[in-house]
Amino acid sequence: MRKPFVAGNWKMNKTVSEATPLVAEMLAGLQAISSVERVICPPFTALMPLSALLKGTEVGLGAQNLFWEASGAYTGEESPAMIKEFCQYVILGHSERRAYFGETDESVNRKVKAALAIALIPIVCVGETLAENESGRTQEVVDRQVRAGLSGLTAEQVAGLVIAYEPVWAIGTGRAADVNDANRVIGGIIRPLVKELFGAAAADAVRILYGGSVKGDNAVEYFSQPDIDGALVGGASLKAGDFLKIVSAAAK
User: Fold this and answer.
1) Are strands 162-165 and 121-126 parallel, antiparallel or unpaired?
2) Residue 96 a catalytic site member
3) Given 96, 103, 132, 166, which residue is catalytic?
4) Helices H / strands E in the chain, number of each
5) Domains located in the chain, CATH noted
6) What pLDDT is stored for residue 213 in this prediction?
């Protein structure tokens, strides 16, 4: 049995003075839902104070990106060790990173390897654009991103990471993917591909999430699907009540 996994991706939202009371508000509720792996991914500036706040709890902390080099002249970047000092997880390959900051399948792969090398758990994002979806290229795009993003990894490494299927057209738009379509991509494309590349044990173990306009009101529908192991939550993770409702849905 794969333990359900729900991560909140705050994106570029919340100052430290806003982040701390938000997590404090939801912390008791999150701690009570131990059957779900719960992760908060705030902006970099909030990682240190939230790490202190979450210490001793089972609620995980994740960064939204890292750079693959250990150190050096890379102005504005954060190394794996800088992230590892505070976090257990890191989101990699998010569609916004690909669209706005030029990330490629190859650079995502380098980041995944760098994260794993320092025992960070990557949350690897894949997903097609609206144009790709409407032209029937979902399988082609997702297949390419998974193959390239996980290239060179071992079956054991793949079994321990997390994949998030986020159709780009559903992120932050309020237009969530049909639950059956989301499950079809995860259970009919991504998991079989992991099995082909890394074996049945890795495919059975890897958690694959859905992301894209997940809310408290629709979370139960997604989590009832056999191959959806949780969610990467955007806007709804910025409100304590909404995020707790989603985590509670995953527990059911």
Assistant:
1) parallel
2) no
3) 166
4) 13, 8
5) 5-251 (3.20.20.70)
6) 87
